[in-house]
Amino acid sequence: MFDLTGKTALVTGASGGIGAAIARTLHQAGATVALSGTKVEALEALAAELGSRAVVVPANLSDPEAVEALAKDAEAKLGQVDILVNNAGLTRDGLILRMKDEDWASVIDVNLTAAFRLSRALVKGMMKRRWGRIIGITSIVGVTGNPGQVNYAASKAGMIGMTKALAAEVASRNITANCVAPGFIATAMTDVLPDAQKEKLTAGVPAGRLGTPDEIASAVLYLASTEAGYVTGQTLHVNGGMAMI
Amino acid sequence: MSDIAERVKKIVVEHLGVEEGKVTDTASFIDDLGADSLDTVELVMAFEEEFGIEIPDDAAEKILTVKDAIDFISSKQG
Questions:
Q1: Which strands, in side-by-side order, build the sheet including A132-137?
Q2: Residue A197's pLDDT is what?
Q3: Using CA atoms, how far apart are residues A160 and A13, in angstroms rounded to an integer?
Q4: What are the Carrier domain coordinates in residue numbering (chain B) (predicted)?
């Protein structure tokens, strides 16, 4: 089950905790993976760890030309891209009263517009081959909202809407588009928080703990699989019951 | 048959999986050859690639038959 042998996948933000777990999981299922991100050393270390069937395709997603170049680079190195995982994302938190235009724009550019550009570039080949998977890593806050994150929440809600429209456009070509929406996940970012804060975070989670990057990666693997071919336009929430939608 | 017409028809046959005989000059992509809206966009993109031209959206909307496509491409290449 969930065998990706012979498939190729491009994962953006692959140097982060969740992105690296997604890349490892898809690779373990047999896929050849292209690792994208800005931290070249971390990407190369991950590629070395994976050994064969892994290539590094660095890109700065805030640059429109670099996004187009990334699509070409990934197709050149993988031969074709069957699975696109739009995972890269950044935060520029602040209350709306204090949020600068550039904080808004940079978050929308990387989290949403880059995902649009990559999807546009790579869906073409998927349509020709009559098989494809486009998976967006959104966030629980794209559905529930969160103070201090109007930009981030907008980008993640935008990704869900984009995914639904895209799913409707390409469903007849055997291409699915879905989102995975993580809740609180234990990454390098949350590791450094004091215990008291961690307790506060988990208090609102019925499962009583933070999620792991592997639990997000497993959801991505399912949506990437041939078995999930009839699932499209959906958002799979992986949040320990924190929000039941 | 001109070279352009031959290449256009070849793309249509390959793309829509229809018999060559059905791809006449007057054949409408949607009404006669069973194309859906996504097929027509894919065809336009295939023409752009094959002939190294750009077909703007307003021109693409007017390409409804095989002949429309041949005429438009010929005008660009002429």
A1: A54-56, A32-35, A8-11, A83-86, A132-137, A175-182, A235-238
A2: 82
A3: 18
A4: 2-77
Looking at the DSSP bridge assignments, the partners of residue A48 are none
| A1 assigned to some structural domain | no
- Predicted local distance difference test score (pLDDT) of residue A188: 78
Please count the structural domains in chain A: 1
Q: What is the pLDDT of residue B1?
A: 53
Residue to test with chain B: of A120, A127, A174, A175, most B Cβ within 10 A: A127
Closest CA to B31 of B42, B18, B20: B18
- The CATH number of the domain holding residue B33 is 1.10.1200.10
Mean pLDDT of A201-215: 94
Count the residues in chain B. Answer: 78
Residue A2 included in any domain? no
If you count residue pairs, one on A and one on B, with CB atoms under 8 Å apart, how many are there?
A: 9
Q: Average per-residue pLDDT in chain B?
A: 92
ipTM of the complex: 0.77
Domain count for chain B: 1
> How does DSSP assign B20-66, residue by residue?
GGG--TT-BTTTTT---HHHHHHHHHHHHHHHT----HHHHTT--BH
Does B41 reach chain A within 8 Å, measured CB to CB? no
Q: Does the annotation mark A152 as catalytic?
A: yes
Distances (CA, A) of A89 to A13, A73, A133, B59: 7, 20, 19, 37
Residues making up the annotated binding site of A are: 38, 87, 152-156, 185
Query: In this predicted structure, what is the pLDDT of residue B56?
Result: 93
pLDDT at A107 over 60: yes
Structure confidence by residue, pLDDT tens digits, A129-179: 999 999 999 999 999 999 999 999 999 999 999 999 999 999 999 999 999
Tokens of A60: 């700065």
